Amino acid sequence: MKKHHQDIQDLIYVHLNQTDQYVMSYGIEFSEFAAAFSGSLSHLLLLKHRFDDADFNMHTQLEYCPEERITKLAAEDVYSYGDFCWIDFIEEDVLNELTGQEIAELLYLGHQKQHLKLPFYNKLGNRFVYLAHDDGWFNKTYYRSFKDFFQVLSEVVAGKLANLKLEKSILGLRKKKSYPQVNKEILLSLTPFIKEGICISLRDADHQRGRIEIPIWVIGDFANMDDMVEEYEQISSKPYHAKIIFDKKTKEWKLNVI
Length: 258
Description:
By secondary structure, the chain is an alpha+beta fold. It has two domains: 29-135, no CATH class; 148-257, no CATH class. The chain contains eight helices and 15 strands. The protein has helices at 30-36, 70-74, 92-95, 100-112, 146-164, 184-189, 191-194, 225-235, and strands at 11-17, 22-26, 43-48, 55-57, 62-65, 83-89, 128-133, 138-143, 166-168, 174-176, 198-201, 206-207, 211-218, 242-247, 252-257. A hairpin with a 5-residue loop joins strand 9 (166-168) and strand 10. The longest helix is centred in the middle third of the chain and has 19 residues, at 146-164. It is globular and about 60 Å long. It starts with 10 loop residues before the first strand and ends with a strand.
């Protein structure tokens, strides 16, 4: 039942696992992730990829994307890679200090998309581990700090809304509006729901004259995104659990929990 790439443009699923420090998501792509950390992402050690402009590290026998080429990588059709997995690191020298055990753990991460031990390495100084299959369809991202996750989510919701809603200008040309990122306090207050697994549906957004209302359903814990989409299709005809509201006049976001 796998849908086309376009379907991930207007539906976001996130489920936060606090104990193991990762978020399962659908609808957040690498290009959006990289944009949220523009200028602050370090080099990426590529565990699974098809990027043809990577550098090679002899010690790990793995390729990596230097910081200055991340924009180029983000512009690629990463979705078409199939598996796309990486861990960030501060500088190339630290790769040469990795032990055989640590390299084995990293290979296991890329292969199985799960950890043998929590994948935060002081040597690497990594903030993330990004494990995707059909990028944007199935993503499992480890966060050293969940602050970074809320940063991504706040930018992605605003960005998707801008891509979705092109307003007509006086000349009849469609112009892209931009929206401020959603306040992180609002998203933080949704944490209990996010721990259960939620769908934020831009496709069901109610565009009114003075406001835009985006519904949120608590839908549960999914590792299979086909099942998640099916569940969303069932639940989306039922009352939502919360909504985030953008007030066009004040240009501010609000939260309404039902």
